[in-house]
Amino acid sequence: MDSARTPTSPPDDVRITAATSRALATEAVHAGRDDLAGRGLHAPPIDLSTTYPSYDSRGEAARIDAFAATGAEPDGPPVYGRLGNPTVARFETALAKLEGTESAVAFASGMAALSAVLLVRGSMGLRHVVAVRPLYGCSDHLLTAGLLGSEVTWTDPAGVADALRPDTGLVLVESPANPTLAEVDLRAVAHACGSVPLLVDNTFATPVLQRPAGHGARLVLHSATKYLGGHGDVLAGVVACDEEFAGRLRQVRFATGGVLHPLAGYLLLRGLSTLPVRVRAASANAAELVARLAADPRVARVHYPRIGGAMVSFEVHGDPHEVIGRVRLITPAVSLGSVDTLIQHPASISHRIVDADDRRGAGVGDRLLRLSVGLEDVEDLWADLDSALGERAPGAIPLREALSGAE
Ligand SMILES: *Cc1c(COP(=O)(O)O)cnc(C)c1O
């Protein structure tokens, strides 16, 4: 197995901002809510307005001009829902606090967030992207297919500096990566990027385990659909970054419309308040399952990152489709980061859209299964996995022919 080490989670009381000197667990429940007590509220209000009345259209014109110039959040009430929403802004404020960045900009999904970043850079004539595989399957596809006019050079972390060109607008990495959990030395890659912005997809680690901005990443992306929401009922994305880049992202969001619904913003803010507790509890379950899988003769290899976390990948000697078909407590479904445990076969689902040779070349083998460990009792989880893994027959069972065919 890759790593039998005990995960090295940061201490619970890690101070995330020198300015406030509040711990991450404190910010998780208080950030984005500073004004509530003064307004006589406890739960944050949900503002579902799509438009906002104003008798001062000269003032509106000035606010729109200011937004067009800098992308800064308009003062006072928003003009129109696509320009900004107060409930969504609470989530953005809180996530920026947790990631240690000036700002954050929320989108309708993780893919909408990545698209906005590519559009910002492409609109500046910087269409070339340097990226490290593996990435989430659809991120790989968006770059490979050039759907937004970008051109990608794939490299390994050590090759980033050599892959940069005058028109390189972005360097993109995931760490731990989906689905192999491969880790990238963020500080070294940030150094190799020079002045080119480094985007780190931090979906798997969450700010509880890793804050890439502190390692030199200019952009930190989340599929908030996963751990930030945490309950499998919100589709969302967010980019945490400096205010200058955030302004450009808001302008693209305004012009292209990939906004987050305010109710989703509310649910995400609520999700953040339990994020540290959920991530630590699920990670403890994951570490226990990693130890049992690593000792199991039906399992060929276990992948688990040094920073820990609640994601585990493993390769089976037998047919992975059979394992998926036999789980009963664990949900056989794509996605991750929910309170319940999910399992999926990346070569069939999350990374199906990636060319098979590219996929295998990135370490996403046909026998790899990806497990998103939830908050159930670990003995119940192991009982389900144990029966799903099937007979404890020694030695490798040949891959069934069906496995190589499309399904
Ligand atoms: C799911 C995922 C995405 C895409 O996010 P959506 O919210 O599904 O659009 C991006 N990156 C990673 C690592 C993911 O797991």
Question: Would you write up a description of this structure?
Answer:
The structure is a single chain. With 407 residues, this protein is an alpha/beta fold. It folds into 2 domains: 24-275, Type I PLP-dependent aspartate aminotransferase-like (Major domain) (Aspartate Aminotransferase, domain 2, 3-Layer(aba) Sandwich); 276-406, Aspartate Aminotransferase, domain 1 (Alpha-Beta Complex). The chain contains 14 helices and 12 strands. It has helices at 24-30, 57-70, 86-99, 110-122, 137-144, 160-163, 186-193, 206-209, 243-256, 262-294, 320-326, 356-361, 378-388, 401-404, and strands at 103-107, 128-132, 151-155, 168-174, 198-201, 219-223, 237-241, 299-303, 311-316, 331-332, 342-344, 368-372. The strands form 2 sheets. A 7-stranded mixed sheet has the order 1-7-6-5-4-2-3, with helices on both faces. Strands 8-9-12-11-10 form a 5-stranded mixed sheet, with helices on one face. The longest helix has 33 residues, at 262-294. The chain is globular, with a radius of gyration of 22 Å. The two termini are 28 Å apart. Residues 109-111, 136, 138-139, 174, 178, 201, 203, 223, 225-226, 235, 237 line the site of pyridoxal-5'-phosphate (PLP). Residues 109-111, 136, 138-139, 174, 178, 201, 203, 223, 225-226, 235, 237 line the site of pyridoxal-5'-phosphate.
